[in-house]
Amino acid sequence: MTGEDSSSESRLKVLHRDGLMLIIDKPAGVPVHRGPKGGASLEDEFDGLRFGLPRAPALAHRLDRETAGCLVLGRHRKALARLGELFKQGKVRKAYWALVAGGPAADEGFIDKPLGRLDVTRGWWMKVDPSGQSAQTRWRVLGRGVWNGAPIAWLEMSPLTGRTHQLRVHAASEGWPILGDGIYGERDTGIPLQLLARRIEVPYSANKPAVTAEAPAPEHMGAALQACGFGGEPGESVENLGR
Question: Which of 25, 64, 107, 129 is an active site residue?
């Protein structure tokens, strides 16, 4: 079943549900699992996403706390193992929307820059590192505009590898950091990270079409998207963007 579905026991929007997996619309600002110091996390909501199964679903991959959009959950152990293989093998196709400061001169491109840990004191902060792990990203410009008095660009970014903070580091390394990125871009702007896991394609079965889901643009990205020419989701009025 594909489309907007929801559980009465969970506040999370379900973009796709079948017997093997769920794809949910992760809200920005919420970690997917508890950190070493505890605290609330997205996993707290998973029991309300059982939909009749005896166990709650579990994470098949991760999204950063600040990132919104498509997140895949496996509904049982066999499905989780299969999903884990697909992500590890790079067979799951992902497309993100990013709003960046300034923007690239070209309309499309390819970034091939290995990434490594910044240093042992900074957790999972990353940097471009020639001796690091391979990291590749394709991108294309979907729109350009001016927001808050400065030029910005709306990009679709497709990671071909799955490194931590890959899109954020790659964008910053090209000179156009993602807006609201207080780690790799300008700090203390008060702007939430303008990054959305827009679309995902999961080829779970060899003899069936890939499972596809698309997350709507979140409210906190609406104003900048509109400045770049985004007209809203189907059926949504332009006046509702960014509200």
Answer: 64
